[in-house]
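PROTEIN DESIGN WORKSHEET
SECTION A - STRUCTURE
LENGTH: 252
TOKENS:
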């Protein structure tokens, strides 16, 4: 399973940080409009982050995560995937997200990522380096964004599936040679949906393609371990967050 409606990022708010935030509606190149949430630091670092949620799309977990990035100086925009099929309005916890996941396409997701990247590069964002950070469904698409022609500085994925899609279309392993930015993969060692062999194959494919990367597996950690509710994996979450921030600083 992915994050539950009452999940929250396992990151404490940074006391004294000054940020603003706003709900947005962005428009992709095909004219589709979709919801987004932006968090803007008072003293921006010049680094921007497009947050790609799990299968539930945009909801409060990712809005809170955007705030945590902004508290550290990084402008963040969390995007939704379902503007084409569900509109741009707020949704309750009973939203039938899997019905809408089934109607997404890789091309549509990448158009939405492009709109998020463009927003961060506008005068409002003033970001000279843009990254993607995704989770589960979004983790896979974050890595694929590094092959999407967006000029990313790097792509981070938490427990994304690196193999082919269910319809047989190529995933991050198969498209490793197209990846044009450093990769960070943060995986659970006890994730039944993502076998260790797939993680190893992703690592090997990135090696073969000459892509700078880190593939980190946390032994015993389940899918979606990066969650305040998983107190037994607090040290893994802390390490993962430290690695994310270090990756941004190193490649930004």
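SECTION B - SEQUENCE
RESIDUE ASSIGNMENT:
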């Amino acid at each position: 399973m992915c994050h539950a409606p009452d999940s929250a990022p396992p990151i404490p708010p940074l006391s004294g940080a000054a940020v603003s935030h706003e709900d947005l509606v962005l428009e992709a190149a095909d004219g589709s409009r979709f919801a987004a949430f932006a968090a803007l630091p008072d003293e921006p670092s010049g680094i921007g982050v497009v947050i790609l949620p799990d299968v539930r799309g945009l909801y409060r977990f990712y809005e809170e995560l955007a705030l945590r990035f902004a508290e550290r100086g990084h402008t963040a925009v969390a995007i939704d995937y379902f503007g084409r099929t569900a509109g741009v309005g707020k949704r309750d916890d009973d939203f039938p997200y899997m019905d809408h996941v089934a109607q997404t396409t890789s091309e549509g997701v990448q158009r939405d990522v492009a709109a998020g990247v463009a927003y961060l590069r506008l005068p409002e964002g003033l970001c000279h380096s843009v990254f993607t950070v995704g989770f589960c469904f979004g983790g896979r698409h974050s890595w694929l964004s590094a092959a999407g022609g967006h000029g990313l500085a790097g792509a981070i994925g938490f427990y994304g599936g690196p193999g082919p899609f269910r319809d047989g279309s190529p995933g991050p392993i198969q498209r490793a040679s197209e990846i044009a930015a450093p990769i960070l993969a943060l995986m659970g060692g006890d994730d039944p949906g993502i076998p260790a062999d797939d993680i190893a194959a992703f690592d090997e494919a990135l090696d073969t393609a000459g892509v700078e990367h880190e593939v980190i597996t946390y032994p015993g950690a389940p899918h979606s371990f990066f969650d305040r509710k998983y107190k037994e994996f607090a040290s893994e979450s802390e390490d993962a967050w430290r690695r994310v921030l270090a990756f941004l600083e190193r490649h930004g």
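SECTION C - NOTES
The helical segments are 60-71, 83-86, 97-101, 106-121, 137-145, 196-209, 234-251.
The CA atoms of residues 45 and 195 lie 37 Å apart.
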